[in-house]
Structure formats: structure tokens, C-alpha cells
Amino acid sequence: MHLKDKKLGVIGTGKMGSALIKGICDSGIIAPSKVYASDVYDLGLERMRTELGINVSNDNDLTVVNSDIILLAVKPQILKSVLRSIKDKVTAEKLVISIAAGVPLQEIAKELNPGTRIIRVMPNIAATVSEAASAICPGPTASMEDAELALEMFGAVGSAIIVQEKLMDAVTGLSGSGPAYIFPVIEAMADGGVYEGLDRDSALVLAAQTVLGAAKMALEFHTHPGELKDMVTSPAGTTIRGIKELEERGVRAAFMNAVIASAKRSRELGE
């Protein structure tokens, strides 16, 4: 069974929840009339109802009752209280998907009825432009079909892979937090262009498109990034001069350490 045959409920319509709803509706994998969303804030709900044509309410129970798949897009701090409040409405035939960072499957299962099918997912903010990098971890009671539904859903807003839960902190450090590492890079590259005489708007377009193009090459060429770098780097040319500067400034180590530090913090939050 595919997602088009399912009804989706989303609890929490902040940046990530609303981004996923929009991406899913825009992709056509679930009709807006089969999407139910709930939140305590009326403004965002009304905007999505008007723009996307989904069903909205302030009642989480209503969202759960009307849905086959329940996507929990709430803050980790309130996840357990939300789970407790909907526990009796989450029947055996429903699939629960949580995107709350740092909350293990075991902790989610404790708040629901035994045997509830649960999947944990770590997407990232690029879901807002349907370019998310998402890691999916099915719980022990989730079926292969459940995992395939999750892959289809998050694949609609970017790329999705399945990982073991022990790797979710690494995912958080890499792709979950990763966009925040790249935005300063884009800004810095644009600043360099401005320093050399480009106007700000032109420099920003060139910097952002350069990052986008390089990422697309890395994904589509299936070639080691070092080989891609060498494609651009000619002997005694302009590029190798810039590469030398990056190496001397420790940029490679800085990015590695950023991922490692973020993953460590993710583990701390889950303890």
C-alpha cells in the first residue's frame, strides 16, 4: 500500500512540521484532503488550511483519530506529554513517526501502548525547499512496509536513507545541524566576492549556486569528492591557491569537529 492510500496526521506545525506538510502536499503523494494537522497556534494552522487545503484543528485527538500515520513534529521537551495525551487514541493499526531530536525509540514506546509501530526520523530544515536529508530508523515493531512508507514520505521532500538508531546522533551532527554550517560558508564566499568588487546580490547568487551545483555533482557523479576537486584544480592555477589557503586555515578539521561536537551534544540531550 502506498501513501496515496493513507491519511496523514501531523501534530506540531512549526517550521519543520509545516515544511513537511507543504512538501508532501506539493509532491502529490498524499492529497491535502487526507492531511490533518493540529497545533495550539491558530495563525499557522489557518494559513496552511487556506494555502494547502488541509484539515486543521487545535485537537490532537481529532488528528490521531482521523489518521493512519501520525507524524509527531513537536519539540523534544513536550514530546512525552503529547504521547501520553494521545495514547488511548493510537490504536494498533496506526503508525507513529517521530522527528523529535534526541528522543530514542525506547523512550517513545514507553509512553504508548505495547506493540505500537514506531519510526524515528531525523530530517533537516531543507525540507522547506524539498531538499531535506533524512535518516529513518524503524522501531522493532515496525514492518518493512512501514519503513517503505516513511522512505516514500521523506523522499518526497528530499533524500532519505535507513540507519541504525545508534547512528542517529551522528546523523544529527552531520545533516540535522549541517545546513547551519553551510550558511556561514555561503555568506563568507559572498563576502569575498564583495571584497573583490562584486555587488552583494550578485555575490550571494554566485556563492549559493556554487554550493548547490557542487552538492549536485557530488550526488550525481558518484565520484569521490577529492576527484571532483581535482577536476577543477589545474597546476599552478587559481583554484589550488585557494585550496592551499583553506588547508592552512584548518577548514577541513573545523568542519569535522563541528559534526563531532554536534553529535556529542545530541547524545547528551538523549541521556
Verbal overview:
- This protein has an eight-stranded mixed beta sheet with strand order 3-2-1-4-5-6-7-8.
- Strand 7, helix 6 (144-155) and strand 8 form a beta-alpha-beta unit.
- It is built from twelve helices and eight strands.
- 54% of the residues lie in helices and 14% in strands.
- By secondary structure, the chain is α/β, with parallel strands linked by helices.
- The radius of gyration is 21 Å and the shape is elongated.
- Helix 8 (178-195) crosses helix 9.
- The chain starts with 7 loop residues before the first strand and ends with a helix.
Annotate the secondary structure layout.
Elements: E1 8-11, H1 15-27, E2 35-38, H2 42-52, E3 55-57, H3 60-65, E4 69-72, H4 76-86, E5 95-98, H5 105-110, E6 117-122, E7 132-138, H6 144-155, E8 158-162, H7 168-176, H8 178-195, H9 200-220, H10 225-232, H11 238-248, H12 251-270
Parallel strand pairs: 1-2, 1-4, 2-3, 4-5, 5-6, 7-8
Antiparallel strand pairs: 6-7
